[in-house]
Amino acid sequence: MEHDFTVENFKPATHPKNIRISGTTVILEPINISKHARELFEAYSEDNEGAIWDYLPYGPFESFEEYAEWLTSVTSDEDPTFFAIVRTSDSKAVGVAAYLRINQAEGSVEVGHLNYAPTLQRTKESTEAMFLMMKWAFENGYRRYEWKCNALNKKSRYAAQRLGFSFEGIFRQSNIVKGRNRNTAWFAAIDSEWASLKECYETYLSDSNFDENGIHRVSLSELTKPLLYKIDSLEFLDS
To answer: Are 86 and 32 in contact (CB under 8 A)?
Structure first.
């Protein structure tokens, strides 16, 4: 079988620095230290055991000053480009996300540095934040949207597939993080999948999908599971 891998008329993707993405329940905006740092630190402090930092290469932070200093050090970077996840119901910053490995020339970008305060975890707001970031990426010229995590992080691996990222494999001994080996699990969604994934998100996030108690009727994983790509290790051997 022959494959045509020609990419025609591709134009470099847009860089996400300084963008602001508005949704219904959340807004993603460039981190402003004076506006967001204290809110984020206080929201994270609700995680009494510090579990939200387990798989991140930094943290936990013992004081607000330490956290603010670290946050300041990353906000000027263009890669990663960090955002505060601001809840529209109370205008509070309750999480952080970033675009990284930003390859405009070839249209590839990763979402990462995800850190949700307990109040954001497992909420409609957290799902919409991920929808907005994926939507922006595909609508601004990216053809590949990546998710990577420590292979031991089962919650992150589940979340990736729930959100429509297909598992692509494990990179063994890819990093040393906080003195421990990290095997990295790779996931991705590509532009040809976006229209179907968008429909899944819009169905899940619609008001009609939630009852009077805010419980969804159809889960996002039910909607995205049929779209997940299953890689055949022999698929490309004859190309």
So the answer is: no
